[in-house]
């Protein structure tokens, strides 16, 4: 039987074609719900170990579940800390989304945490990913692993052009709730506030000027589509908890004859 070999992250190929990747987001600590989400047509699915209820053991189960589908497995780590970054990569994540990258120095540290020597300081031990991706994983790791820093503070916004110029960084990802809070607004997504629109445009331009992918978290599919048309390469839509709650609320409302209801508070620290 021929051994499966992946040489490049499928998202890179998608972006070369000029397409926008639609990303699912997991907060529920369950391999079963992860597989359900991953089978709904997302191009990638992110396991959230920062604000989600997911710790390492269930993150591993979620990554295994995603691997039964064509969706690319990604992970948001709790912080720019080398231990958890390396553990998630060894477990099969093909991209790391890291919160609170506020300076080019922090971005360079993130790149180092994600890359093997001589480019970085990632320790060797691809325990599961060697099976899920193939025996050539280490040789192709630079093309397989996406390194994505979150821009979600005023400091990060002030430094965004320098952050985007960091060698080895693959993308910038906007956390709109934290960014809006840092800019003096109520934390929310799908913003129409002029200060947020200006910030989003600046981050997108910094990414494009440096050949990086640009991502953003969205509360609704409609706004996500708008961001894709604006030029974003990766658009996330809500998360599994909110989608479940919205569908359940709509079903209850319909059963009571009240008509369909909306999805509720988008929240969640994105």
Give an overview in words:
There is one protein chain. With 270 residues, this protein is an alpha/beta fold. The chain has one domain (10-255): Phosphoenolpyruvate-binding domains (TIM Barrel), CATH 3.20.20. The chain contains 13 helices and eight strands. Strands 1-2-3-4-5-6-7-8 form an eight-stranded parallel β-barrel, surrounded by eight helices.
Task: Itemize the secondary structure elements and their pairings.
Elements (H helix, E strand, L loop, with lengths): L9 H7 L4 E6 L4 H8 L5 E5 L7 H11 L5 E5 L5 H9 L4 E4 L5 H11 L14 H5 L3 H8 L1 E6 L2 H5 L1 H5 L6 E4 L1 H7 L11 H16 L3 E6 L2 H10 L3 E4 L2 H16 L15
Parallel strand pairs: 1-2, 1-8, 2-3, 3-4, 4-5, 5-6, 6-7, 7-8
Count of spatially separate domains: 1
Order of helices and strands: HEHEHEHEHHHEHHEHHEHEH
Major β-sheet strand ordering: 1-2-3-4-5-6-7-8
Mean pLDDT: 95
Q: Give the total of beta strands.
A: 8
Please identify, by name, the CATH architecture: Alpha-Beta Barrel
Q: Please report which band the strand proportion falls in: under 5%, 5-15%, 15-25%, 25-35%, 35-45% or over 45%.
A: 5-15%
Assembly context of the chains:
single chain
- Largest sheet: number of strands, sense, barrel closure: 8 strands, parallel, barrel
Q: How much helicity do the residues have? A: 40-55%
Rg computed from alpha carbons, rounded to a whole number of angstroms: 18 Å
What overall form do the CA principal axes indicate?
Answer: globular
Distance between the termini: 43 Å
Give me the CATH superfamily.
Phosphoenolpyruvate-binding domains
- Reading off the top of the CATH hierarchy, the class is best stated as Alpha Beta
Tally of helical segments:
13
CATH topology: TIM Barrel
